[in-house]
Amino acid sequence: MMKQFALCLLMLLAVATGFAQQTDSTQPALSDPNAWSVIVLPDPQNYVKYKRNHPLLDIMMNWIDENRERLHIKMVLCTGDLVEHNDITNPDGKKMDQTGLQQWETIAAAFGKIDGRIPYIAAAGNHDYNIFSYTHAPKHTNYPQFFTPEKNTLNKKMLREYTNNPDNTPSLENSCLEFTSPQGKPFLFMTVEFAPRDTILQWAKKVVTQPKYKNHTVVLLTHAYLNYKNEQMKTAKYDLEDANYGAAIWEKLVKPAGNIQLVVSGHIGEKDNARKHVGFRTDKNDAGRNVQQMTFNAQAMGGGHYGNGGDGWLRIMEFMPDGKTVHVKTFSPFFAMSPGTKHLARRRESFDEFSFELN
């Protein structure tokens, strides 16, 4: 009798343990088995500039790969500032301890973990160009050497358009990938360079308004667009000619295009203040459709610009089978690793966990 009781108790404990694991709210899960996800990777500059922070970026990229099937991850969007300094050769060890070349090699290797497994678009941010001193300087970047169509076979297969960067070099800094959702809805994921030139906005508008893309849902990725007050940026501290920030990008490209329904950006942040790393707003375009605009970053979380790089935060956008609803969650694989910190792995404030609709 006692043996049977002990056996039943063990079985109940096993079921309870299994149920607890399945319902553990630490790890994000799809709310619908037919939904699919896009991961937003915030500015990684502070992960790559210190060698000590490289493992945190590895944790994030490994988590994305490990959850590729469980979360039906179909795309990764990186908001830019892939490096802290494009071409520094003698870092001082305080502001950074990695050369520009080492930083580019590190970020390329990080994305290498999902090459051939998940398509991705990496925006180019201000730190990816040689305008680090905020002076009037040519916008040179090493981006095309490390992010090429051949780097990720899935990207190459989905690549539809790209054009020249400020160096007049063909580059994925301005490019778009075509994707069809599991429900058959066509998407175009597009990125434009930091503070895009007028010629780039004209190119992007021409691309998205082609008849073959008129029924596509266009997702635009760019680096500097919204501030934490949910305002479209009008100016920045860079003395650059022919530069466009959020308000100008809206007026010249997003508003008139008609089919750009979601804009994603990064760039902003204040030490250990989650609210000042994010922004969101909705506006109607010239076609009368709502355009959702979202900024997500984490670069100064985890101790500011000299800290751990961003506490491992990333954002999950779950696209529902109805073709219009998107659920947003903010999650840190870094905190989720340990039983002692996993309770910190989800941010549930209204600006970090919410839903919106695409037309």
Automatic annotation (TrEMBL):
* Chain ranges of the Calcineurin-like phosphoesterase domain: 55-268
Please indicate if the UniProt record lists DNA repair as a keyword: no
Signal as UniProt keyword: yes
For this UniProt record, give its keywords in alphabetical order, as a comma-separated list: Signal
- SUPFAM superfamilies, alphabetized: Metallo-dependent phosphatases
- The secretion signal range is 1-20
Picking any one GO molecular function of the record gives: hydrolase activity
Give the protein name, as stated in the record: Serine/threonine protein phosphatase
